[in-house]
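> example.struct
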């Protein structure tokens, strides 16, 4: 990416879908964001239950859960957003199997390390710096948000961390959607600058878990998660990064209790691994003839009915392999027995029963269905 931090991505032939979007929760801080023709992976962590992750200085943590899918089953990706370079956010599976040409937006520290590992398109940002991606009629601006991974001098011993603000814009540079991802941060004073600069945030993904090492808290616990909602004021918040490793000491039930005590139930959506939050963006946000209504008046709505089609995106194959673009999409649709993009939105967004057994991955190997008998479903929770 050039110094102006702008990249052109292969465009969508029939235009971007600004009306429908989805958030698919893989596990830990790993999600798939699909909106406006972009498919974005966050903090790739595909280790399985019982695997250990290295946290530095000889410390490790054991994974307690399985990812909702394996890395071979990822759809073609446009880019990855990475909060920082820790083993539970970019693990050895991602290092080995992610396409090394995939653009990765992250901290400058992580970008330098990824280049040494052979990745060719990392983009390192300082706080408040922005990387811009254009894809046909859609523009995605990713701005680094302030993050603090540890209290006091201990922060010098941990890799730098960032939050991310994703702004999806039309060709006329009207912002259709704002998504904030906290990254592994604690509550700190600099976070107050976020709502000052960006007062209208539609959706926030909160890294919780109350991670503790040597008795010190390194990520938000239940109380700090509620404080973050009050401070950032997103229309909807989704907690992630809450139950996957032994170092996570603040369970989701504590956050749910704190949310109820604060009267914020209508602002929070809860996703289990393998579940999707689908949403619909009002035409006033993105359609030229529909503009004029304020964002506050026309809130993003949870999507209660699956769209009938999804625009194809020519994106980078998710994993290294035969090198062909789009090679992972048929694997992602194996559960449906379909191969078209029209079916893709059904796989990620519509309620689907995941039978026990296995499905085929992009490399032809069998992938276990870890959540046997569970539903992949959207979780509506009122308006953003």
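> example.seq
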């Amino acid at each position: 990416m050039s110094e102006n931090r702008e990249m052109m991505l292969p465009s969508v032939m029939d235009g971007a879908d600004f009306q429908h979007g989805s958030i698919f929760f893989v596990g830990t801080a790993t999600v798939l964001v699909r909106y406006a023709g972009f498919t974005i992976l966050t903090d790739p962590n595909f280790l399985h239950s019982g695997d250990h992750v290295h946290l530095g200085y000889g410390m490790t943590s054991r994974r307690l859960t399985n990812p909702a899918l394996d890395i071979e089953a990822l759809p073609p990706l446009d880019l990855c957003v990475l909060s920082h370079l820790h083993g539970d956010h970019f693990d050895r599976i991602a290092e080995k199997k992610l396409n090394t040409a995939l653009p990765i937006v992250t901290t400058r520290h992580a970008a330098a390390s990824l280049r040494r590992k052979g990745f060719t398109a990392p983009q390192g940002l300082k706080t408040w710096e922005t990387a811009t991606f254009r894809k046909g009629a859609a523009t995605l601006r990713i701005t680094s948000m302030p993050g603090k991974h540890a209290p006091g001098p201990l922060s010098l011993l941990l890799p730098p961390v960032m939050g991310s603000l994703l702004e999806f814009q039309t060709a006329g540079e009207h912002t259709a959607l704002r998504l904030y991802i906290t990254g592994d941060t604690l509550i700190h004073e600099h976070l107050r600058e976020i709502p000052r600069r960006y007062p209208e945030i539609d959706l926030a993904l909160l890294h919780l878990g109350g991670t503790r090492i040597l008795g010190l808290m390194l990520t938000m616990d239940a109380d700090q998660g509620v404080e973050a909602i009050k401070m950032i004021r997103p229309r909807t918040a989704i907690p992630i990064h809450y139950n996957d490793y032994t170092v996570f000491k603040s369970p989701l039930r504590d956050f749910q209790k704190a949310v109820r005590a604060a009267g914020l139930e209508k602002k929070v959506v809860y996703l289990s691994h393998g579940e999707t939050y689908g949403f619909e963006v009002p035409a006033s946000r993105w359609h030229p003839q529909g503009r004029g209504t304020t964002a506050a008046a026309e809130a993003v709505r949870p999507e209660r009915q699956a769209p009938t089609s999804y625009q194809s995106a020519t994106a980078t194959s998710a994993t290294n392999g035969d090198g062909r673009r789009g090679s992972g999409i048929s694997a992602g649709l194996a559960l449906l027995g379909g191969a078209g993009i029209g079916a893709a939105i059904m796989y990620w967004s519509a309620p689907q029963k995941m039978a026990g057994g296995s499905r085929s991955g992009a490399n032809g190997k069998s992938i276990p269905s870890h959540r046997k008998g569970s539903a992949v479903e959207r979780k509506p929770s009122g308006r953003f």
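> remarks
The CA atoms of residues 11 and 135 lie 5 Å apart.
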